[in-house]
Amino acid sequence: MEKITTILKKIIPKSFLTAMLPSYHLLLSTIGAVIYRLPARKITVIGITGTKGKTSSAEILNAIFEAGGKKTSLVGTLRIKIGEKTQRNMYKMTLPGRFFVQKFLRQSVNAGCDIAILEISSEGARFHRHAFSFLNGLIFLNIAPEHIESHGGFENYLNAKLSIGKSLAKSPKENRIIVANKEDVHSEDFFALDIPKKIPFSISEASNIKLNENGSDFIFQGKKIKTNLLGEFNIANIIACAHMALAFGVSLNDIVKGVESLKEIKGRGQKITLPKENTLSKKQDFTVIVDYAHTPNSLEAIYKAFEHERKICILGNTGGGRDTWKRPEMGKIADTFCSKIILTNEDPYDEDPKKIVADVAKGIRIITPEIIMDRREAISKAISSAKAGDVVIITGKGTDPFIMGSNGTKQPWDDATVAREELEKVLGKR
């Protein structure tokens, strides 16, 4: 099917495809809803959207509801989960299409799940993949320039996000709830929608914040919350999820319990170490981090989480004609925060990967970056050069299962697995 799609994209004019695809996908969503008998009517459905933080927030909310005794299902960039069964999301789409959502919701209902959590991207919304999901609640985290070229401008991107809020406003469910970040100017657009319950959230609700390389702890509504998740941005995500959970009857004690039960989120500030039974693990005196950061804001956020450490940074940029504007911006941020920069291949699609890397390098003025196009070799070089106390930060892919090449080709990949393999080789030589 992917090969056929690639061929069609080359034959059919892009303008025609752009105009027709949303209607085509809406038709598919409608057919799927009929085939699977509108399963969203029989389950509580909560959506999460925003430029950054969706995956982390989906995992946080899932952990909180489970701590509150709810049986959950979840679909997002990281994984697809129904009850106790979970599998890696191999679709390279946050919210897959072609009947996927309706089938997922039907399976969730059949499995006896109480709550389904949907991570909803702007691309998913643009192609109506969330149609007929009949939301009960929505968390809006933030919005910043992203997918601008594919959407045809920031306003179109914002409207795609707002369409998710509008689907909540039109949902037949009672007691609909929106939780939105009041520190984001566009929260006003979401709060202007006809939704019965509107809950603002802000990181300012957290007090006594103590950040460290192993996470943070803070006070929220009189309760101390300790989390292994890195950075202030995750404190904001936790507060957003706490408000949504409270609105659905989860106690504050269970919220604390749920947050503290979440030890890590794969590909999101994920620390890479060897198993303790591996004797080489004792030799690791530096930190290796894998993070999805693929926008300027998210890249800066993960670097700030290790603001006082010497950082060896590996980054590239996605291709395929998407968001070319951000390439030098990402380079500029790395130039500001990193001590050593290695530029490498990420997801070139149909673009020349060397051109993409050259575009990133245009934003780098202080440090002379090293260019290693082979991503495994780049990771190995970064780990090999790490000294005691250093932090190696590998960004851009997180848990993405493939490196996407030209003409629809794809190479199986996992940053965490490769980093762990290279870490073992390096430590074995020390």
Describe the structure.
The chain has 430 residues and is of the alpha/beta class. The chain has two domains: 12-261, Mur-like, catalytic domain (UDP-N-acetylmuramoyl-L-alanine:D-glutamate ligase, 3-Layer(aba) Sandwich); 270-428, Mur ligase, C-terminal domain (Protein-Tyrosine Phosphatase, Chain A). Helix content is 39%, strand content 19%. It has helices at residues 2-11, 14-35, 54-67, 100-110, 122-126, 148-151, 154-170, 187-191, 232-247, 252-261, 296-304, 326-337, 353-361, 375-384, 415-428; strands at residues 44-49, 72-75, 79-82, 85-88, 115-119, 137-140, 177-181, 197-201, 207-212, 215-220, 223-227, 270-271, 287-291, 311-315, 340-343, 370-371, 391-395, 402-404, 410-412. The strands form four sheets. It has an eight-stranded mixed β-sheet with strand order 4-3-2-5-1-6-7-8, sandwiched between helices. Strands 12-13-17-14-15-16 form a six-stranded mixed β-sheet, with helices on both faces. Helix 14 crosses helix 15. The chain is globular. The N and C termini lie far apart (47 Å).
What's the layout of helices and strands?
Layout: H1 2-11, H2 14-35, E1 44-49, H3 54-67, E2 72-75, E3 79-82, E4 85-88, H4 100-110, E5 115-119, H5 122-126, E6 137-140, H6 148-151, H7 154-170, E7 177-181, H8 187-191, E8 197-201, E9 207-212, E10 215-220, E11 223-227, H9 232-247, H10 252-261, E12 270-271, E13 287-291, H11 296-304, E14 311-315, H12 326-337, E15 340-343, H13 353-361, E16 370-371, H14 375-384, E17 391-395, E18 402-404, E19 410-412, H15 415-428
Parallel strand pairs: 1-5, 1-6, 2-5, 6-7, 7-8, 13-17, 14-15, 14-17, 15-16
Antiparallel strand pairs: 2-3, 3-4, 9-10, 10-11, 12-13, 18-19
Helix pairs in contact: 2-4, 3-9, 3-10, 11-12, 12-13, 14-15
